[in-house]
Amino acid sequence: MERSSSVVQPVRQKHPGKTKEVDEKKEGKLQVEQEATDEALADQKVMAGEAQDRRNIWEPSVYYALGKETFYFAGHDISIRESLDTYGALIWPGAIALCQFLENNQQQVSLTDKAVLEIGAGTGLLSIVASLLGAWVTATDLPDILSNLTFNLLRNTRGRSLYSPQVTSLCWGQDLQRDFPYPSFHYDYVLAADVVYHHDCLQELLQTMRHFCRPGSRTTLLWANKMRFQSDLRFAESFESSFNTTLLTELPQQEVRIYKATAK
Questions:
Q1: Which residue in 14, 125, 141, 236 has a CA-CA distance of 20 to 30 Å to 206?
Q2: pLDDT digit string (tens) for 243-259?
Q3: Which of 119, 136, 105, 112 is nearest to 221 (CA)?
Q4: Whether 213 contacts 221, CB under 8 Å
């Protein structure tokens, strides 16, 4: 009978210290991810609450889930139709604050005969006011926002503004050079109001701002935002490091800041 032989494989011993270090890293990563998730849920709850507050003041409609808001800017009554469907179809504090600033500071920021682009135009209130102040305006937003945006723009500028505002689709960070090549698409001012909140496109938003406000363009960017969340403050830090910025005004009660920026 043959004697069977066996080969003894070396046993790799575990290092308790190293295992503990790996476990701690995993736990730390999970904790960071959980904190980010909790922050996102809390932020979304705040936004939903603000949206609900706006919807509660609407007059009920039998046929449409729509509400109306009326404002008075640049010597005109402005009637805005809002929608239940999306945050982009609601009016937020930053837009109202920037409208007031533009109306009250026309010597500092003259929009007469200026080419103006609004990104994230939403309901169109800011673009309407810019048009009434004499600007040639292009209002942009996501495709599903454009119908209501166009309705509000035409309703409030027809026969009132020197230039008819244009409406077009713009997805932040996507196909910018193809759809808005520089210098063919050059603007004196880029307007943005309440475009920063807890969403997944903040880097793309900053990229879009840089595309339109680039060195040598002489474009001025005006950004107004209610500072609700930590993510808003982090974006503000990135914004300030990307451009030459001036804090034009801060409204503590509304928690709104208005920045002016030019390319570095």
A1: 125
A2: 999 999 999 998 999 99
A3: 119
A4: yes
